[in-house]
Amino acid sequence: MIEYTRKLTESARFQAFIVGVILLNAIIIGAETYPYMIENYSRELHFLDSLCLWIFVLEILLKIIACGKQPFNFFKNGWNLFDFVIIAAAFIPGLQNQTTVLRLVRLLRVLRLLSAMPGLQIMVTALLNSIPRIAQMALLSSLLFYIYAVIGQTLFSQHDPQHWGSLHIALLSLFRILTLEDWTDLMYSGMELYSWSWIYFVSFVLLATFVIFNMLIGIILNSMEEAREEVMREHNKGHSREDLEFQLQAARDALNILEKALKKTP
Predict the structure, then answer these.
(1) Domain of 237, in residue numbers
(2) Residue 227, exposed/middle/buried by CB under 10 A (0-12, 13-18, 19+)?
(3) Residues above pLDDT 70, as percent of the chain
(4) How far, in whole angstroms, is CA 173 from its chain's centroid?
(5) CB of 199 within 8 A of CB of 229?
(6) With bands split at pLDDT 50, 70 and 90, how would you rate the model's confidence at 266?
(7) 214-222 contacts: CB < 8 A, separation 24 or more?
(8) Residue of higher predicted confidence among 50 and 228
(9) Helix and strand tally (H, E) in the chain?
(10) What residues contact 164, with CB distance under 8 A and at least 6 apart?
(11) Which among 116, 150, 173 is the end of a domain?
């Protein structure tokens, strides 16, 4: 029974079915944002939403059963705990009377796609793992912004106070340059005062837009590779442990049968 349940919950068809239910739940939540759908199909939408919820509950129960004699192993996996909290939130007492909160809690079920699809798991794990390195890069970017903002305010505050009148306004102008949104207008305005000021703007674009963005992309790609290896290692390790436990249990059963057979032998 336990082995059958484990194979069922890990099968590709079962996972595809759960992904389909999650997408159906997302469609239902989206449909409820239209007054026409609420007025004409509220009963059907409520039934389908409840059906999706109980399917999720059944899925969690099956996964807990698949853990065998150690059901708490289910909660050792962060993604399983994530799913459990999202589904359990729907059963908070008094939540049914809070329409807005209830809709937000139901909307959280869409996030279950993160745990249902290994590819998304790798991306989320990569983003989480890259936070320390991104924070270091953010510190470097802040230093770069601060230096260029002070220089820009010093050079252009009298000529163009709308964009360089103070430090915080200069920082907003630099953010506009970072997005490459009409940044040449600021450059040509600065060149009216100093013909060589194009060096200031072009150097900032090169450093901030290209260098920093490429560093960010490199950090995320490197983290994604590390996350992929980590997920695959945990997946394979989990399977090896479960297979070993199954084989040990099968060996014990075989020994018990052999002992009973020997006892019956005269």
Answers:
(1) 118-266
(2) buried
(3) 79
(4) 32
(5) no
(6) very low
(7) 215/137, 216/134, 216/137, 219/130, 219/133, 219/134, 219/137, 220/126, 220/127, 220/130, 222/130
(8) 50
(9) 13, 0
(10) 152, 153, 155, 156, 157, 170, 173
(11) 116
Q: How confident is the model at residue 98 (pLDDT cuts 50, 70, 90)?
A: low
164-219 pLDDT, tens digit each: 989 999 999 999 898 888 888 999 988 988 889 999 999 999 888 787 878 888 88
Q: What is the CATH number of the domain that holds 36?
A: 1.20.120.350
Q: What does the pLDDT average to over 43-59? A: 88
- How far apart, in whole angstroms, are the C-alpha atoms of residue 140 and residue 118? 33
Mean pLDDT for 87-106 is: 71
Q: Are residues 232 and 135 in the same domain?
A: yes
Residues in the chain: 266
Check whether residue 138 and residue 243 sit in a common domain: yes
pTM of the model: 0.57
Domain boundary among 53, 87, 116: 116
> How many independent structural domains does the chain possess?
2
> Domain containing 131 — which CATH number?
1.10.287.70
CB 155 within 8 A of CB 197: yes
Rg (CA), the chain: 29
